[in-house]
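I have been asked to look over a protein record a colleague put together. The record follows directly below this note.
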Amino acid sequence: LPKTRRYGYRNLHKINRYGIFLRSDLVLRLKKKYKNKIGKNQLVKKMTKYKSFCSLIVGNGNNIFYEKYAKDFSKNQPQTIMSITKMLINLFIGELVNKKNIDLNKSVSYYLPKIGSGYATAKLQDVLNMNIVNAYTEDYTKSFSSSFLHEPVGGWRIPKTGDIHLSQEKYLKTIKSIKNKNLKNDSEYAFYKSANTDVVGLIIEKVSGRPLRDWVLSAVEAAGLEEGLYIASDRFGMPWMSGGGCLITRDFLRLGLLFARKGKGVGNRKVGSPTFFNQTLRNTAPKYMSLTNNKYLYYSNSTMISGNVIGHSGYGGQFLAVNLKTGNVAAFFSVLETKSATKESYKVDMINMLIDIVNTKY
């Protein structure tokens, strides 16, 4: 709710009824190497003056180029990254595709024979690209949208019937197709459904034989997170990959830097696939939203892409942007207090700002 959202975003890791905490043994050491040019950017000036603003951090390699916090927000304050959590799936799927353990042209039912009609005939590639149509809805203006009804699975809401506790897997099997319609998306725009990411997460577990928790830990340790990752889970311990993560601002940057290094981690650890990162940028993907100057953000392999930039938005005013060519990373925390926690013009300005930052040479 708007009045408590700013508090809730900072304390979601405590409010979650179920969750996991993972911290790395090795930490990516960061040093300050500030670039005055960033603070002079007009969109940076505009976005950091909003009441919704929490933090903005920019870096490359192990250098911090820019760092700014709201008066009520500290360097050590965790905040939810919401759907930016989805980007981790790109790392895990990339590894499995690289090893030829997964074929993205196979249908979901090939890997999950008991999945419901909402996913059974969909190609895994289309699920990763938010490019299917089914009965799962994600409309933040409607209280009974599927995405909100999904929340009791992760302990974000109390179930209507107190003694019913669905696992993530059992819930995903209940999603149906729209009556008398196939799953094909005839639009040029993505149909954003958080459940898609959780279905892919389930496939990753089944195919690899490794719990999702182990996959997430490998990413945390490769990124060298200092504070660590707080992530919601279902009642039985399966991480909520579609939006359960919480990080402090510098670890938010470290997560982006892991992508900038194309999965090369601290201590010569590796996660993801450089080849798959390149495929993600070249992928023929549906449009996610329009930006300025006739440019678009596209949805590809559990990430959002534009030119050489890979990233993701988070519900309520978050975005992580990584330029895979320059290595620049920019991460933005804010909390919109509109009724739906969204505002299109704000989102466009936020994304344009971050893309501009990471596309600039310093």
Q: What stands out?
A: The CA atoms of residues 313 and 319 lie 4 Å apart.
